[in-house]
Specification:
There is one protein chain. It is built from two helices and six strands, in the order αβββαβββ. β1 and β2 form a beta hairpin.
C-alpha cells in the first residue's frame, strides 16, 4: 500500500513540475495561424485575447495590457482585420489532448508586427 501512495505522490509531483515549466516561445516551436479578428478582449491577468472568425481556439498575448496594449485601441486597430499569428506548441498534463487557449509568440497585421517574443 505504501508503494502505491509513493507512486501516486511521485506522479503528482511530476505533473506539477511539467505543468509549471516555461513555454518555449521560439520561432522553431511556433505554429502559424491566420484569419480575420472577430473579437479582442481582456482575459486572464491583463492578457490581450483574440478570437478569430471560424476558429474554435482563442489566442492570447500574455500580460499584453501590462506591456503597452490598450483595450479600446486594440479593438479599433484589430477587430475586422486580417491577422497572422504564431502560437507556441505546448503540452501539459493538465490538458493532455490540447488546449483551446493558445499563447501567441508573434503577431502581425498587414505585415506590420504588433507583438513578438522572438
Amino acid at each position: 500500500m505504501k508503494k502505491v501512495i509513493y507512486i501516486i505522490i511521485a506522479i503528482i509531483i511530476g505533473c506539477v513540475i511539467i505543468a509549471s515549466t516555461a513555454i518555449d516561445t521560439s520561432m522553431e516551436n511556433s505554429v502559424k495561424v491566420s484569419g480575420k479578428v472577430k473579437l479582442v478582449y481582456e482575459g486572464g491577468v491583463k492578457d490581450v485575447v483574440f478570437v478569430l472568425e471560424n476558429n474554435k481556439a482563442v489566442y492570447y498575448i500574455n500580460r499584453g495590457f501590462e506591456n503597452g496594449f490598450n483595450l479600446a485601441k486594440a479593438k479599433k486597430d484589430f477587430e475586422g482585420k486580417k491577422i497572422k499569428l504564431f502560437y507556441a506548441k505546448s503540452w501539459t498534463p493538465l490538458a493532455p489532448f490540447g488546449r483551446r487557449c493558445k499563447h501567441i509568440t508573434h503577431a502581425a497585421v498587414n505585415d506590420s508586427v504588433i507583438f513578438s517574443e522572438w
